[in-house]
Amino acid sequence: MAFTSTSQTDWTRSDIYHNSFLIPPNNALTAALKLSEKHGLPPYAVSEAQGKFLNLLAQSIQARRMLEIGTLGGYSTIWLANALPEDGELLTCEISKDFAMIAQINIDNAGLTDKVKIIVGPAITTLSNIKSNASFDLAFIDADKQSNVEYFIQAKRLVRKGGVIIVDNVVRNGRVADPDQSDSNIDGVRKLLEYIGDDPTIEATTLGTVGEKGYDGFLYAINKPNIS
Per the database entry, which stretches of residues form a coiled coil (predicted)? Predict the structure, then answer.
């Protein structure tokens, strides 16, 4: 069955329609978006549907320890942390002190202070200082795309065998696959794909998405278990 092309208006309407049935209102998440906007944070947070997907994914693998690279205002952080058990924890890395301050307010407002720790500074430095036996169940990478490979290498080191690594914004309106397109973000995604393609210890796929945030997609990777 063929489908006619659609527009951003159609994608946004579809998200709103489906979300109205599947995602109950959450005051803390709504407040997090409003506070982030009020303080001029860039509108780079995941969509509501994408946040719910991250939450469901974390629940489905019964994640107890999670790693996030790129906190921004804490919107995706809250979605992920809401999936944790009582003794679960989420470590999130943010380079901007100002963004981290807003994120902390949002996380506190969501009642997640005891589950979430924000570390301010360059994520590569933060991650390099974490011991390899940390055994995170899931890592979510949503930071500067130029450093995708470096972030992924660190996430692979820290995520347990069989654990999941998600990388956001890897389709970029289809421009990553267009040889006539090039910028630092596109090239960062291409380098990541090349790296994973040459790594036999990773199983991965890319899923394109459309919705209120436009046409993009995420990479879903598994740190393959050792096979004896």
Answer: none
